[in-house]
């Protein structure tokens, strides 16, 4: 018998008998409180995908020799479910997350799955957890699809057991400062990703190495690192966000720039949406919208000349976060977040 | 009250009431069967290191939002306990592992600890598990100290909860082929590590990205990848092993070469021992022992000229593994593993 594909129609649901009290919105800390349930699907190399279950939120029981605890067989996605103006629950471009999750899975030697089937399961999960989707500008239910290797053993090889699961957390702003501009440190003493590496995949492995530099940057008053690459100081991304810069040229035309998908940055869904919206909505006589390489030196020079209009980060968790300062080599590059730079057609 | 340091004297031991039957040596698969107990110490940012415990081997109960499952807050060491000629149990250079584990912990924003105290705990653990230390050439008890972030939450920040634990597995040869020469693929289509990255730390994050290329190499008959770096094709390491080459020069003198500790390779304990032994035992009139950069092209050219005497990998799990073939760009570089290259003083 060939291994079974992921099949949403097999879902079984066991609802909690002890539903949680909803937290008031002002008490929501990003990713700290969770809904009542967890969605899980086990996979084995031999049998393929098993029966999807929604059960009361519970701890995972893992052998201490499980591969995800030793060799980082783990990847995830970040998605959000919102209430629309009629109160209906909508997920934002989940198909993009499913595509990316499968790309990550392939690179991490973990099993792939039918993204449409998993989206069906997520929709069922949202029906069960409906009351946890908050209302209000900037509030949403953050969804965390996760895939981990669950084979037991210390030999380093592709997992023959895995667990796909989904948990969800009602959230407001990602940064603890709230919906306020963030300050970044342009970092070249550590490197997040490199050519032919895994920086373009949403693997846990891309995060652990960024925390110690993030702590260093925090001591200097910055909430995140702007990761540079190479002697040229190419700008890549912010770890939790992709990054955009708006410049005005000498002739008065303007440019919105973000680094290209060169394998070293995460192909963000919000990045993609931002580019699509900018190309659709900004006046092409006034604006050019470019995915191109740019260096921290270009940003510094143009800021010095008064040509840097705005800078912002994009990400599912961070949404669109204005950047008002970037420190590089002890000097601050200031961006003004109070302009009305983007006037749509 | 300041956070408590790791204190071995606080250890509590609860022995199993259902001891496992020992497997016969020929049934030992690397890292597949474990001893009766697990050593654990919890850490919190507030209280520091808690009471170390040795209890019956058991699963870990982890909230599905635990940081080690999302952001790869996980690192480990590999050590071995052997029986000496008098049957006494000895660990091999554990102080080196403790140093490296603390370096890894610092880089991964996980807590550091007093390595001497942890070694005392490991010695206690070995007293409890004595019957699992096998006898015989190439057999040992593989020890796996592990440190994971156990804080619950999806914000990406330094863990304020962690778990240090030790499990152990009686082992024979690492490679399933047994104590036989291995064939490598020299790989340049994927890159393991980068300057200013984390390739020199024993983080789980360094392993996940190597498996998909390892599977590709396996389809071509190779058991491991020899990771190249840069357009020059610099040789770095093998993921599970450091790598050494022995050359004979035109004037008949010989050279033992291994790549230098440039931040891109793991500073292996067996690598270090091999260098120490080679420097102490090989005749310096005949041999030079060098940590220097070398490229796959140099190895190929010198093999073509008959100047490649031997190649081997070193690692705690792999011990010293002869390499009899390296495929690069579809061509095979053969090494002869049956010479008596290394005649000690």
UniProtKB/TrEMBL annotation, chains A, B:
<dbReference type="InterPro" id="IPR043132">
    <property type="entry name" value="BCAT-like_C"/>
</dbReference>
<feature type="modified residue" description="N6-(pyridoxal phosphate)lysine">
    <location>
        <position position="202"/>
    </location>
</feature>
<keyword id="KW-0032">Aminotransferase</keyword>
<dbReference type="InterPro" id="IPR033939">
    <property type="entry name" value="BCAT_family"/>
</dbReference>
<keyword id="KW-0028">Amino-acid biosynthesis</keyword>
<dbReference type="InterPro" id="IPR001544">
    <property type="entry name" value="Aminotrans_IV"/>
</dbReference>
<dbReference type="GO" id="GO:0009083">
    <property type="term" value="P:branched-chain amino acid catabolic process"/>
</dbReference>
<keyword id="KW-0808">Transferase</keyword>
<comment type="pathway">
    <text>Amino-acid biosynthesis; L-methionine biosynthesis via salvage pathway; L-methionine from S-methyl-5-thio-alpha-D-ribose 1-phosphate: step 6/6.</text>
</comment>
<dbReference type="GO" id="GO:0052654">
    <property type="term" value="F:L-leucine-2-oxoglutarate transaminase activity"/>
</dbReference>
<dbReference type="InterPro" id="IPR018300">
    <property type="entry name" value="Aminotrans_IV_CS"/>
</dbReference>
<dbReference type="InterPro" id="IPR043131">
    <property type="entry name" value="BCAT-like_N"/>
</dbReference>
<dbReference type="GO" id="GO:0005739">
    <property type="term" value="C:mitochondrion"/>
</dbReference>
<protein>
    <recommendedName>
        <fullName>Branched-chain-amino-acid aminotransferase</fullName>
        <ecNumber>2.6.1.42</ecNumber>
    </recommendedName>
</protein>
<dbReference type="GO" id="GO:0010326">
    <property type="term" value="F:methionine-oxo-acid transaminase activity"/>
</dbReference>
<dbReference type="GO" id="GO:0009099">
    <property type="term" value="P:L-valine biosynthetic process"/>
</dbReference>
<keyword id="KW-0663">Pyridoxal phosphate</keyword>
<dbReference type="GO" id="GO:0052656">
    <property type="term" value="F:L-isoleucine-2-oxoglutarate transaminase activity"/>
</dbReference>
<comment type="pathway">
    <text>Amino-acid biosynthesis; L-leucine biosynthesis; L-leucine from 3-methyl-2-oxobutanoate: step 4/4.</text>
</comment>
<dbReference type="GO" id="GO:0052655">
    <property type="term" value="F:L-valine-2-oxoglutarate transaminase activity"/>
</dbReference>
<dbReference type="GO" id="GO:0009098">
    <property type="term" value="P:L-leucine biosynthetic process"/>
</dbReference>
<dbReference type="InterPro" id="IPR005786">
    <property type="entry name" value="B_amino_transII"/>
</dbReference>
<keyword id="KW-0100">Branched-chain amino acid biosynthesis</keyword>
<dbReference type="InterPro" id="IPR036038">
    <property type="entry name" value="Aminotransferase-like"/>
</dbReference>
<comment type="similarity">
    <text>Belongs to the class-IV pyridoxal-phosphate-dependent aminotransferase family.</text>
</comment>
<dbReference type="Pfam" id="PF01063">
    <property type="entry name" value="Aminotran_4"/>
</dbReference>
